[in-house]
Protein backbone atom coordinates (compact mmCIF):
# COMPACT_ATOMS: atom_id res chain seq x y z
CA UNK A 1 0.00 0.00 0.00
CA UNK A 2 1.48 3.34 -1.01
CA UNK A 3 -0.12 5.37 1.84
CA UNK A 4 2.28 5.16 4.76
CA UNK A 5 0.90 7.85 7.09
CA UNK A 6 -2.19 10.00 7.60
CA UNK A 7 -2.34 12.86 10.08
CA UNK A 8 -4.93 15.51 10.72
CA UNK A 9 -4.76 18.34 13.21
CA UNK A 10 -7.82 20.47 13.91
CA UNK A 11 -5.71 23.10 15.70
CA UNK A 12 -3.56 23.74 12.62
CA UNK A 13 -6.48 22.90 10.27
CA UNK A 14 -4.29 20.47 8.31
CA UNK A 15 -4.58 17.05 6.75
CA UNK A 16 -1.36 15.39 5.58
CA UNK A 17 -1.10 12.08 3.74
CA UNK A 18 2.30 10.53 3.01
CA UNK A 19 2.79 7.82 0.41
CA UNK A 20 5.66 6.01 -1.30
CA UNK A 21 5.69 4.79 -4.88
CA UNK A 22 8.01 2.36 -6.62
CA UNK A 23 8.85 4.81 -9.41
CA UNK A 24 11.09 7.84 -9.98
CA UNK A 25 9.82 11.34 -9.15
CA UNK A 26 9.54 12.25 -12.85
CA UNK A 27 7.22 9.29 -13.50
CA UNK A 28 4.93 10.13 -10.58
CA UNK A 29 4.87 13.75 -11.74
CA UNK A 30 3.65 12.64 -15.18
CA UNK A 31 0.47 11.23 -13.61
CA UNK A 32 -0.52 14.67 -12.31
CA UNK A 33 0.66 16.49 -15.46
CA UNK A 34 -1.40 14.32 -17.85
CA UNK A 35 -5.19 14.45 -17.34
CA UNK A 36 -5.74 11.07 -19.03
CA UNK A 37 -3.33 9.42 -16.56
CA UNK A 38 -4.76 11.38 -13.64
CA UNK A 39 -8.24 10.09 -14.47
CA UNK A 40 -7.02 6.59 -13.66
CA UNK A 41 -6.14 7.45 -10.06
CA UNK A 42 -8.06 10.57 -8.99
CA UNK A 43 -10.92 9.84 -6.65
CA UNK A 44 -11.97 6.62 -4.95
CA UNK A 45 -11.90 3.48 -7.14
CA UNK A 46 -15.70 3.34 -7.43
CA UNK A 47 -15.97 7.03 -8.45
CA UNK A 48 -13.97 7.39 -11.68
CA UNK A 49 -12.84 10.89 -12.60
CA UNK A 50 -13.15 12.77 -15.87
CA UNK A 51 -10.93 15.83 -16.29
CA UNK A 52 -12.46 18.55 -18.45
CA UNK A 53 -9.85 21.33 -18.14
CA UNK A 54 -6.27 20.69 -17.08
CA UNK A 55 -3.87 23.64 -17.00
CA UNK A 56 -1.16 22.72 -14.49
CA UNK A 57 0.57 26.11 -14.60
CA UNK A 58 0.52 28.97 -12.06
CA UNK A 59 -2.85 30.69 -12.42
CA UNK A 60 -4.20 27.68 -14.33
CA UNK A 61 -7.46 25.91 -13.67
CA UNK A 62 -8.22 22.22 -13.49
CA UNK A 63 -11.84 21.01 -13.55
CA UNK A 64 -13.16 17.50 -13.17
CA UNK A 65 -16.09 15.43 -12.09
CA UNK A 66 -16.33 12.04 -10.45
CA UNK A 67 -19.17 9.67 -11.29
CA UNK A 68 -20.76 7.50 -8.61
CA UNK A 69 -21.72 3.86 -9.26
CA UNK A 70 -25.32 5.13 -9.63
CA UNK A 71 -24.27 7.67 -12.28
CA UNK A 72 -24.44 10.78 -10.07
CA UNK A 73 -21.75 13.36 -10.87
CA UNK A 74 -19.74 15.36 -8.32
CA UNK A 75 -17.62 18.22 -9.63
CA UNK A 76 -14.49 19.91 -8.34
CA UNK A 77 -11.88 22.41 -9.37
CA UNK A 78 -8.29 23.37 -8.70
CA UNK A 79 -6.92 26.88 -8.93
CA UNK A 80 -3.19 26.27 -9.47
CA UNK A 81 -1.05 28.67 -7.43
CA UNK A 82 2.52 27.35 -7.92
CA UNK A 83 4.37 24.68 -9.91
CA UNK A 84 7.93 23.40 -9.46
CA UNK A 85 8.06 20.56 -12.00
CA UNK A 86 8.63 17.71 -11.12
CA UNK A 87 8.96 18.40 -7.39
CA UNK A 88 5.73 20.07 -6.29
CA UNK A 89 2.61 21.99 -7.09
CA UNK A 90 0.17 24.00 -5.02
CA UNK A 91 -3.49 24.63 -5.62
CA UNK A 92 -6.80 25.58 -4.09
CA UNK A 93 -9.10 22.56 -4.23
CA UNK A 94 -12.84 23.07 -4.02
CA UNK A 95 -16.21 21.56 -4.71
CA UNK A 96 -18.24 22.88 -7.65
CA UNK A 97 -21.54 22.56 -9.43
CA UNK A 98 -21.65 20.67 -12.74
CA UNK A 99 -20.72 23.87 -14.62
CA UNK A 100 -17.62 24.15 -12.39
CA UNK A 101 -18.80 27.19 -10.44
CA UNK A 102 -17.34 26.97 -6.91
CA UNK A 103 -19.77 25.78 -4.25
CA UNK A 104 -19.49 28.39 -1.46
CA UNK A 105 -21.22 26.06 1.03
CA UNK A 106 -18.40 23.50 1.00
CA UNK A 107 -14.80 23.81 2.22
CA UNK A 108 -11.81 24.78 0.07
CA UNK A 109 -8.37 23.34 0.81
CA UNK A 110 -5.04 25.00 0.08
CA UNK A 111 -3.00 21.99 -1.04
CA UNK A 112 0.69 21.39 -1.59
CA UNK A 113 1.71 18.13 -3.27
CA UNK A 114 5.44 17.39 -2.94
CA UNK A 115 7.45 14.57 -4.58
CA UNK A 116 10.96 13.68 -3.39
CA UNK A 117 13.37 10.84 -4.14
CA UNK A 118 13.68 8.46 -1.19
CA UNK A 119 15.76 5.25 -1.44
CA UNK A 120 15.15 4.96 -5.20
CA UNK A 121 11.42 5.49 -4.76
CA UNK A 122 9.20 8.56 -4.66
CA UNK A 123 7.90 9.88 -1.36
CA UNK A 124 4.78 11.97 -1.92
CA UNK A 125 3.39 14.34 0.67
CA UNK A 126 -0.17 15.54 0.14
CA UNK A 127 -0.79 18.45 2.54
CA UNK A 128 -4.05 20.36 2.77
CA UNK A 129 -4.90 23.34 4.96
CA UNK A 130 -8.46 24.50 5.55
CA UNK A 131 -9.71 27.97 6.52
CA UNK A 132 -11.27 26.73 9.76
CA UNK A 133 -11.21 23.69 12.01
CA UNK A 134 -14.91 23.30 11.17
CA UNK A 135 -14.08 23.05 7.45
CA UNK A 136 -11.53 20.32 8.14
CA UNK A 137 -14.00 18.51 10.39
CA UNK A 138 -16.64 18.69 7.65
CA UNK A 139 -14.44 17.00 5.02
CA UNK A 140 -13.29 14.42 7.58
CA UNK A 141 -16.96 13.54 8.16
CA UNK A 142 -17.47 13.39 4.37
CA UNK A 143 -14.80 10.67 4.19
CA UNK A 144 -11.84 12.61 2.77
CA UNK A 145 -9.27 10.31 4.40
CA UNK A 146 -10.85 7.14 3.02
CA UNK A 147 -11.45 8.69 -0.41
CA UNK A 148 -7.99 10.20 -0.77
CA UNK A 149 -6.25 7.09 0.57
CA UNK A 150 -8.24 4.89 -1.81
CA UNK A 151 -7.28 7.11 -4.73
CA UNK A 152 -3.60 7.29 -3.80
CA UNK A 153 -3.45 3.54 -3.25
CA UNK A 154 -4.37 3.02 -6.94
CA UNK A 155 -1.18 4.68 -8.15
CA UNK A 156 1.22 1.74 -7.70
CA UNK A 157 -1.00 -0.57 -9.75
CA UNK A 158 -1.36 2.10 -12.43
CA UNK A 159 2.41 2.60 -12.56
CA UNK A 160 2.94 -1.16 -12.96
CA UNK A 161 0.49 -1.41 -15.88
UniProtKB/TrEMBL annotation:
The organism of origin for this protein: Pseudonocardia alaniniphila
Short name of one Pfam family: AHSA1
Name under which the protein is recorded: SRPBCC domain-containing protein
Stored InterPro entries: ASHA1/2-like_C, START-like_dom_sf
Domain (Activator of Hsp90 ATPase homologue 1/2-like C-terminal): residue spans on this chain: 22-159
Similarity section: Belongs to the AHA1 family.
Superkingdom, taxonomy of origin: Bacteria
Highest classification ranks of the organism: Bacteria, Bacillati, Actinomycetota, Actinomycetes, Pseudonocardiales
